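Hello,

Our lab assistant flagged a job as stuck in the queue for most of the afternoon. It eventually completed. Since we weren't sure the result was trustworthy after the delay, we are filing this so someone can double-check. Below is the sequence as submitted and the structure that was eventually returned. Let us know if re-running is recommended.
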Amino acid sequence: MTELLQQLVDGFGRGGIYALIALGIAVIFGVMHLVNFAHGELITVSAYAAYGLFVAGLDWWIIAPAIVLVAGLTSVAIEFVAFRWVRGAPDFTMLMTSFGVHFLVQAAFVMYVSANFRQFPRPGWIFQTWKLGGISLEVFDLLVILLTLLTLGITYWVLQRTMFGMSLRAAAEDFDAARLMGIRSDRIIRGAFALSGLLAGVAAVFWLMRSGQAGPTAGLSPMLKGVLAALIGGLGSLTGAVMGGVILGLAEVLLISRLPESLVGLTDGIVFLLIALLFVFRPQGLVTVRRAERV
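-- returned structure --
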């Protein structure tokens, strides 16, 4: 029982990071019907920014908020440079644009920085544990869970209680009707990318604290996890994105702990198989999203 509780905390910690990434992907999909495969580049850029700030002699207390800010600004910049020009294009064109940004950013870092990963120090306290009865809980996992819940709470408040949030939800429901009601498309799309970037930035802080490295493909793995989590929950559903992230994190941790050592390397493959089975019986994901067709 003690071991199971420890694994659940670890799973919720990992799932919280996935949930933040999936939530950012779901925000963009809700407004633009776009699965943004360039979302992981926000973490890649943030990783290099963190490395540069460490080289400059700064510590995590300054670097953590800088990562969030860099991710938010990068997301807005990507929208302005790439997605702004294909808003009215077919969904396939926007999807290809996201792939183009993804590969372009990777190639730029390979050509002008290095193909090798750069290491930077991780905070020492992430390896500390806190005793609760007979359970040894990692301080890092507890902090991830706490700050993830705080971030999700703030995001919920913004979406439910502010004019921007109401405009964003209206645009996700029916973009054309929202524009007829006076909502400015430029402002709401730019705001959606900013919100998505800030969520990716918070997730990047946790991810980089654990990985401690920057490289051209640093954001690939978290992006894939986020897309999977969003698919599990139901694309476009913010609640589903959070649920999908937590479920994916728990599934990974429980499989790693339960599989024989010789099969641990197959964890991702087994997770994909389970997700495929989910889509066989519920292709729309856990939460059904009702939306008007984008024109």
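-- support follow-up --
The delay was a queue issue, not a problem with the job. The result is valid. The longest strand covers residues 129-132. The two ends are 53 Å apart (CA to CA).
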